[in-house]
Predict the 3D structure of the following.
Amino acid sequence: MPKEPEISLTEKTFVLEALKQNLRVDGRDLQSFRDIQLTFGDDYGFVDVRLGKTRVLARISAEVTRPRPDRQFEGMFTITTEMGPMASPAFEVGRPTELDHTLSRLLEKSIRRSNALDVESLCIVTAQRVWSLRADVHFLSHDGNLIDVACIAVITALAHFRLPVVTVSGEDITIHPVEERVPVPLSLLHWPICVTFSFFGEDEDGEMICALDATAQEEALRVGDMTITINKNGEVCQIAKSGGVAVEAEVLMRCARLAAEKVKGVDKMIVDALREDEVQRNKGNLDWLKEGKSENER
Amino acid sequence: MSSQDGLEVILPGDPLPQLNPLLNPEPSSEDMKPRTLRLGQGLALSPSTPITPILPYRFGTLHVTSSVKKPAASITSTPRHYHPSPNDPVLVTLLRVTAEQFIVQLTPYTPPAIIPFENYIINNAGTTAAARKSRPNLPHGSTIYARVAVVHKHLEAVELSVPGPEYGEVVSQKNTVNASSKSSSSAKKDTSAAASSGNAAIANRNEVTPYILTISQAMTKILIAEDTLGKPLLSAVASKVPFEMIVGKNGRVWIDGSSQRDVVKVARCFKEYDDGEMWDDPDGGAARLRELVGKVCGR
């Protein structure tokens, strides 16, 4: 199996020393993200997220199935992540790395278990028919921070996706094609966004050096990491810190506050991108404002 | 790769009848001696095709030097990956040391290369690292500036050599090696700005300043050709920030300057020039380069 490339001593000492001076090789400071670019596909629910050189594709698809017998009112939602050698030669098909497990677990915790998607709204006929939603995440290029990018990709794709309209009359279920009835957006209760902090040990003053949005090089050199999932209202959905250097409560609080601040920016960026796509998509169509919504106005 | 200047792109296995006159030169009146045709990179002898006995094994453009004295032919291309060929200067990372050789990483995700101790010359007297006494004690992960010695498809690993004291370990910690001794031929100093004061600053630094940047093959070609292809970039950067560099053809460049901030500036200029493929612009990237250097280094 191809190993991760060896990082030379020169790079290692330089990056670590520079971080102590709040300096990074790509010119950012420790608390800033790289530029995020969102591109939408022709279909609803297809999004391509780029963050520096990291690139992740997410695609939502839906089909009608029978619900689970123990959860008859709920639709289904699964997230599958796939890491192949396209992202990095160190990833192999059929042999998941540690990062693979962490990633799928974190997405599960952040998006599914935080009830971002109202699964009850996916029910068509109780105990008979429900929508089964599937989010496929593909990693095209790996330059660090896959977790945050994957989370942004899934949330954006869910917000972009439109479900075909279903009418039920008696026993008959009709799924209307997109051309016939305007499809409706999913009912998203909130948008959890992951923010990963990388720790690089303490500087001369005993302060923990923590950086946002680490590149692959920085990820290879860090001594610990922590992922906080938070939404724009400042509600923490989960905190994951598996191993690595010990972090004091004070640092954790500081990270959480910073994450809350960052998430507001990311959230706004996603809303703007979705809005722009909607305008683009409905050029020349004056009826688009009348598009259906499954959620109540709040 | 587009064919520039009307040069034809050659694919691996294409017959090259244009080389035949160089192989069997007609005895001219002034020069009766047969000359040997030197094959450069990308060309190999193929005894099974007697009509065109030389076949390309890489894609690219054919370059022929049909001088009477030294005829030579080679294929040039800019592939995505580095293919070692003899005499290339490279910057490698030490992985481990065995009883006879240094095991080093030439390019990521490939089998390691080796530097046998007898190929590691440590001083001008030609002393090699073969004796335990003269062997440099290099820490794991240190960077060695070396040359490719032997590349053969039937050989397990690419063999490198350190042909003299101007090669060898490049500085990674403060004051371990005097960097200026390395800059004789291959390391390139700033061209204009503050040549003297810049060097003094570099010698007196008390930070860990050298950095190794990974760059594309196209960029490597540009940086190696410091007086031609690389001139616009290097002089633009050097006019703002004094720096030293060593270019390894395996896509790595060692950069040193007077402070970490300066090195980051140089690295960012190189990286963004590389990522933006600015050399492909119609104006040779001059406009974008000016904007980039202004943005990164300030006015």
In short: The longest strand of chain B covers residues 89-97. The domain at 4-76 of chain B is CATH 2.40.50.100 (OB fold (Dihydrolipoamide Acetyltransferase, E2P)). The radius of gyration of chain B is 22 Å.
